[in-house]
Structure formats: structure tokens, C-alpha cells
Design goal:
With 238 residues, the chain is of the alpha/beta class. Helix content is 36%, strand content 23%.
């Protein structure tokens, strides 16, 4: 599996929201501390959550800049192992295999191979909550500049997991979390928003500057951004 988008220029900010602790606890309820494969590990957000809950983590990331940040963030854990690429780990030894919420059939076949007939597959993401007035205003601004923008709308992976025929029925889980972060740091994270850059193209920085202007009108300090940690998990057939 390959990823055509180059994230190298977008690797620096690490101000992404953490995953909701309750969601991570629910994810591990069925498998407990286990050996977990995090495919598309990025800068290590999910890897850190799994390590904190006693897992041995093989984090796979093809972008070297993201991978270097992830290694640095997990350097104190001997249970963290980083790999270059998008797949290719030895199989039949993992209790949990995770992806973001853009996994397709090839990813599910890879998960099935890695699980070797036991454990669970999971897709996890954070989604900004648009019932917050400021976030709704930002979303409206983006959609007015980028027609057809696919952003904070929910992406359901249950149908994709079930359609693969490789696992038991997918179960959805979600939990809220409020991300408290300095305003300027949060705005910097928009400059590394790969999805927005892909869709906005040449207008990307124009849109980002408008977001910055909008947010800074509310003042400089700490911003509270509500998110939902949203995921789907399914059991591998034994």
C-alpha cells in the first residue's frame, strides 16, 4: 500500500488533539494490553495512548519526518517500535491493528494477515464538533471558499469493515474531549492540515489566513476546541 500525498512539509506541528481517554479505554476493553500495530502512525498520537495502557506498539509510518517526530515522542518507551513504510510487518502476532478512518479493502486484508485469526481491527479519528459556534463559523468559512469540502463531517467505517467480509460486525464507539491549547499553536496546526491543503489547492494559505483572522478576533490566549473521538472496531474470526 502506498500513500500518494507527501506529508513531509506538514510534519512539524504536534498540536493535534489527543484522543479521548474513555474512547481508548473502550477500544482496549476487549483485547486488554496486547501487541498492537498502528498503521499510518503519524507523529505517534495513538501509539502514545496504547503505550500508556500497557501495549507493545509497532508503529508504521512511511513519511520520515512524521516518523522522526513519533520516535522522539516515544523515545522513553522500550515497548515502542517504529517502522518505515505502510505495511509489511510480520503477521500472526498482533492483538490489535489500527488505522485512521480512510482504510479500504487492502488495509483490511493486511489487518487480517497481521491478526492471524485473533484480536481486533479498529479505525479511529478525532472530529471537531460543529455544535460549537466558533467551529461552525470556521467550517462555514472553509465551505464558502472550497466548494465540496470534506472536513469535519463524520466518516463511517462500519460499512467498509462489514463489506470486507473479513471480520465480525463492526461496533461504533465515540467519546467527547475538549482540546485546550494556546490559540497561536492551534492556528499553526491549520497550516499542517493536509486534507484542507489537498482540497483547497492554490487557495490553501488564503483560507488559512482567513481562519486565523476569524479566530484572532476572539482574542489571543487559550482556546477550547471540542472534539469527538470516533471509532469502529471488529473482531477477527478465529
Amino acid at each position: 500500500m502506498t500513500n500518494a500525498w507527501d506529508y513531509t512539509r506538514l510534519a512539524a506541528p504536534t498540536t493535534r488533539p489527543p484522543y479521548a481517554p474513555a474512547a481508548m479505554d473502550r477500544l482496549l476493553t476487549a483485547v486488554g494490553p496486547c501487541r498492537a500495530a498502528v498503521i499510518g502512525a503519524g507523529t505517534g498520537h495513538l501509539a502514545l495512548e496504547l503505550l500508556a495502557r500497557g501495549c507493545e506498539v509497532d508503529a508504521v509510518e512511511q513519511d520520515s519526518a512524521l516518523r522522526d517526530i513519533g520516535r522522539e515522542r516515544t523515545v522513553d518507551s522500550p515497548r515502542a517500535h517504529w517502522h518505515s513504510g505502510t505495511a509489511g510487518l510480520p503477521g500472526a502476532r498482533f492483538g490489535l491493528v489500527t488505522f485512521g478512518c480512510s482504510a479500504g479493502l487492502r488495509a483490511f486484508y493486511e489487518a487480517c494477515r497481521l491478526l492471524g485469526g485473533h484480536g481486533r481491527v479498529a479505525c479511529v479519528r478525532n472530529r471537531r464538533r460543529l455544535d460549537d459556534p466558533l467551529q461552525a463559523e470556521i467550517e462555514a468559512l472553509i465551505r464558502s471558499r472550497v466548494p465540496g469540502y470534506i472536513g469535519a463531517r463524520p466518516t463511517c467505517q462500519a460499512a467498509a469493515i462489514d463489506a470486507s467480509g473479513l471480520f465480525g460486525k463492526a461496533v461504533r464507539f465515540e467519546e467527547p474531549i475538549v482540546h485546550r491549547v494556546p490559540v497561536l499553536d492551534w492556528l499553526a496546526s491549520w497550516r499542517s492540515h493536509a486534507g484542507l491543503q489537498r482540497q483547497a489547492g492554490a487557495r490553501f494559505y488564503e483560507v488559512v489566513f482567513e481562519i486565523e483572522d476569524l479566530v484572532l478576533r476572539h482574542g489571543v490566549g487559550t482556546i477550547e476546541v471540542p472534539y469527538t473521538t470516533l471509532g469502529w472496531t471488529a473482531e477477527a474470526p478465529s
